[in-house]
Amino acid sequence: MPTALRRLLAVLALVVAIPLAGHADEGFWPFNRIPRAAIKQALGVDLTDQWIQRVQHSSVRFPSGSGSFVSPDGLVLTNHHVSLDLLHKMSTPARDLASAGFLAGARADEVKAPDLELLTLQTIEDVTATVNAATKSGMSPAEALGARRAAIAGLEKDRQTSTGLQAEVVTLYQGGQYHLYLYKKYTDVRLVFAPEYDAAFYGGDPDNFTFPRYALDMTLWRVYENGRPLVTTNYLPWSTTGVKAGEAVFTSGHPGQTQRLYTVAHLEFLRDYALPLSLDAFTEIRDALAAYAKRGPEEFRQANDDFFGIENSLKSWAGQIAGLKEPALLNKKRADEKALRDRVASNPEWNAAYATAWGQIATARRDLPPYNLERVFFESGLGMNTPYFTLARTLVRWADESGKPNGQRLPEYTDARQAQLRRQMSSTAPIYAGVEQAKLAACLSVMVRQVGADNPMVKRILAGKSPSDRAAELFKGTAMGDAAARMALFEGGREAVDSSADPMIALARMVDARSRELRTKYDDEVLAVERDAYSRIAQAAFAAKGDTAYPDGTFTLRLSYGAVKGYMENGRTVTPFTEMRGLFVRGDDHQQQPPYKIADSWMKARGSLALTTPYNFVSTNDIVGGNSGSPVINAQGDLV
Question: Quick check: 595 and 588 in contact, CB under 8 A?
C-alpha cells in the first residue's frame, strides 16, 4: 500500500480506549521501562539487561510494521502482509512477486527493494525537561505547542548531526513525557524469500481478523552494508523446540497509535463522528478499487494491496464503533474517569493543577465538527488521496518550509526529515496511474457528498467538472510519477515549484492556503489544548497511582508479554495451536475454492509432510496494528 495511504489510514484509525492502569499481559512497554517485577510475578521469568539489549537491537522497524534480525548475516523476518506493498513495487506484469512468490537461489539473486528503509533502535533518552523548558509561564496552549515543536526540532537536528543516527522525539502519555529515540538506518535491503500469495494469505478476507491460522504470513529480507551482507551479533536464534501451552512469550515490535488515555468525551466524538466518516469515505474508495481490479489481471495486481489495506481498516473501524456503542465499555471508562477525577478533587493541590483538563478536552471536541470536514478532506488529504497529490503537496510545502528557520517549520519538514523527503522524491518504485486515478475520482466524489458541492474550495478543486472527469484531467500531463521530474523540482526550490505547470502541483498550490489555515486552527484550538490537557491527566494518574502505567502506542519499539494460551469460542475450547494437517482439511472442506485454494507447491508436497507439525499459535500478548511482523520470543531469547 502506498505510504501516503498508510499515513492517512493511520490518521483516521482510532483504537478503543481502556483505563490507563493495566492488568496482567496488557501493555506495550518502552525498552527503558520494562516492568521486570510484574513479568517475574506473572510469568516467573527474570529478564536480564543482556536479554533486553539484544532483543532491542535485534528488532527492526519497517515503514508499516515490524520485523527482526534472525541470523548473523543480516536476515530479517517479517510478515508477508507487511512486505506486500514492497512486493507490488518490485513486481512487473511478467514477474508478479506478490502472487507467485520468490526464492533467491543464491545471494547474487537477492533483489534490492527500490525505496525500503529499515530502522533499529539504538538508544532512548528522556528529554521531557528540555522540551518543557521551552515553554514560559503565561503562554497560551498554542504558543506552548509552538515552543515545544521548536525545541523538538532543535534536539532532533543536534542529535542527528552529532551521532549520524536518525533522531526522533517521541511524545508519550499524550504529552506527559518526551523521549528522544536514535535509530540506525539501513537502505540496502534485498528480498530473499516470499511465499505464494495463496499460502501467505490463505483463507483470504473471510479468515482475516477472525481465523488467520493456516497462513504462511512471512517474508525474509537481507540487510546489506557497504555492498556486503550485514554482520551482526544482535539477532534472534531460531528455537529448535517450539513452544508449549502456558509457556511465557514476549513480543518486540512497534504498536501503532492508540488512544487508551482518551476521555469519555473524546471517545464519544470518535463514535459519533470521526469513525463513521472514515467508514463512509473508505467504503467508496474500496468499491472503486474493487471495480478497477475487475478490469483484468494486471489491474487486479495493481489494486490488490490498497484493497487489502482498506478492507483491514474498515473491519477495524466497524469493530471500534460496535465496541463504543456497547454500554459496558463506556460505562467502565466513565467509572474509571470519575474515580480519578474524584481523587483529584479530594486534593486541593491536584485539583488546582488538573481538574479542568477533562472539560477542556470536551470543549475542544464539541467545537471541532463545524470545520473538521474541510480539515480532513483538504489538509489531511482525504479528498485527494493519491500519492500523486501527496508528492506534489510535499514539493510545494518543502519549497516554502525549507526557507524558514528550522524551529518554525511544520514538523514533517524540519532538517531532521530532509533525508527522508529526498528519499521519497527520488524513489523509482512504480506508482500506477490507472488505479490512482480511480481512487482520486472516488475521493473527489466523497468530498462532494460530505463537504458539499457549494463549498468554495470544492468548487475550485472540481473546476466545473464531475469527479471522474476532474480526476482524468489532473492525471493527464502530470509528471508526479517520474522520480527525475520530482527531484528536479525538489532541488530547484521555490522558483522551480512556483513556475511549474504540472496539474498536481497547481492543485497543491491552489488548496495550500486554505489547508494551512485549517491546520493552524486545529493545532491551536484542539491539538494544543488537548496536548496540555492530556499531559495533566497523565500527571494526575501518576500522582494518584504512581508512574507504573505504560504509554499509548506511538509506532515506536515496545515489549509486550503473555503466555501461549487458547480461548473459548461459542462455548467450546479452541487450542492454541494449529497443525499442518488442518490446512488440508480446511482446503478440502471448501473444495479448494478461493480463498481456500491451497498453493500448488503445498499440494505437491502434501504426501511428504509431517502433518502433525505445529503451524501457528496464539498467545495473550497485547498487540495492535504496527505489531505486524513482530517476533515472538521465548524466555531464552529465541525466536519461536
Answer: no
Using an 8 Å Cβ cutoff, are 293 and 310 in contact?
Answer: no
Check residue 558 and give its pLDDT: 97
Q: What is the pLDDT of residue 480?
A: 97
Quick check: helix, strand or coil at residue 427?
coil
Helix (H, G, I), strand (E, B) or coil at 520: helix
| Regions of the chain short of the pLDDT cut 70 | 1-24, 209-212
Q: Which of 121, 601, 529, 546 is nearest to 358 (CA)?
A: 529
CA distances from 483 to 3, 429, 433, 434 (A): 16, 9, 14, 18
CB 111 within 8 A of CB 104: yes
pLDDT of 507 reads 98
pLDDT at 12: 36
pLDDT at 4: 45
Residue 478: CB partners within 8 Å, gap ≥ 6?
Answer: 388, 392, 502, 503, 504
* pLDDT (0 to 100) of residue 210: 67
Residue whose grid cell is 509552538: 146
Strands (E), 143-187: 166-172, 177-186
Q: What is the DSSP string of 19-81?
A: -SS--TT---EETTS--HHHHHHHH--PPPHHHHHHHHHHEEEETTEEEEE-STT-EEEE-HH
d(CA 537, CA 543): 10
Q: Which residues does 528 contact at the CB level (< 8 Å), separation at least 6? A: 140, 141, 142, 144, 145
Q: Which three cell numbers stand for residue 560?
A: 509486550
Which grid cell is 143?
A: 504558543
